[in-house]
Amino acid sequence: MFKARDTEQVIRYAAMFAAMGAEPRLRIVRLLLTAHPQGLAAGEIQEELGIPASTLSHHLEKLRTEELVKVRREGTFLWYTANTEALEEIINFLYAECCTRNKAIEPSDLVTIAKSSKAERERKS
Amino acid sequence: MFKARDTEQVIRYAAMFAAMGAEPRLRIVRLLLTAHPQGLAAGEIQEELGIPASTLSHHLEKLRTEELVKVRREGTFLWYTANTEALEEIINFLYAECCTRNKAIEPSDLVTIAKSSKAERERKS
DNA sequence: TCTATATTTCCGGTAGAATCGAAATATGTT
DNA sequence: AACATATTTCGATTCTACCGGAAATATAGA
């Protein structure tokens, strides 16, 4: 039972991972996160990352399809923002799949790890 | 400065996401996690998921290359296991990228969310 | 060595993804 | 309406991923 629902889930998450699994798109998501929650207009992304407009448009379309970014129009500009809910969903999925299993880490450890890697990141920069 | 290192990181994580971004491979990782930490022989995975041997071999090779699975030989069998460290790394990356930003969620909330989704999952099954 | 089993490598076919210039569309301004 | 700018859609090309049968390799046992 619930096989169909499970199948849909796997397909959906695979698609989300695939959307992040291309260098230009991962860059886009990262960039949008630095600009969160205001986001960036397509043209700004284009300029920042040096991606041709038409190519960028395809990537944004893909990210939008997989719900990793949201978009709102303001005049002739399209403002893209990262969909942090979707990213949290991915984290939860990974956490559910990975970290509740047998020997895997405890929630409290996860926080410790997250904090220490943040500290480490800041130390290195 | 550190542009090169950052580039490498993005490329690496994009490759990891891409490895998880194919339905058969996401299934494989999930299956290996259910069998963690013992893992499964390639033939068992093949039988369980109904993937032809050569195709499966390609997928496992990809996952191995991106360090998402480990492998050990035992006689003629190759035992594959999920690399939970790599999965934790992905969680930390996403957490770092996503959840330390502006309005994003706090570590303590992350645990709450993770726990409640686990509870919800168990309720549904 | 011969046989059996597990798995990979080889090879070719095919579908889909990524790319980007050019043309089309959308919106706002004068 | 004409023009300017932002972005998408079109069209064509190239590249890469996925797939799976057949052959090769690895290991163990008789």
Oligomer: homodimer
Do you know the CATH architecture of the largest domain in chain A?
Answer: Orthogonal Bundle
List the secondary-structure elements of chain A in sequence, H or E: HHEHHEEHH
Distance between the termini of chain A: 50 Å
Beta-strand percent range of chain A = 5-15%
Q: Widest sheet of chain A: strand order?
A: 1-3-2
| CATH class category of the largest domain in chain A | Mainly Alpha
Q: Given the C-alpha coordinates, what overall shape of chain A results?
A: elongated
Helix content of chain A: 55-70%
Count of DSSP H/I helices of chain A: 6
Mean pLDDT of chain A: 84
What is the gyration radius of chain A calculated from CA atoms?
17 Å
Largest interface: A-B, 54 and 54 residues
Major sheet of chain A: size, sense and barrel closure?
A: 3 strands, antiparallel
- Topology, number of strands of chain A: 3
Q: What is the domain total for the residues of chain A?
A: 2
The named CATH superfamily of the largest domain in chain A: Winged helix-like DNA-binding domain superfamily/Winged helix DNA-binding domain
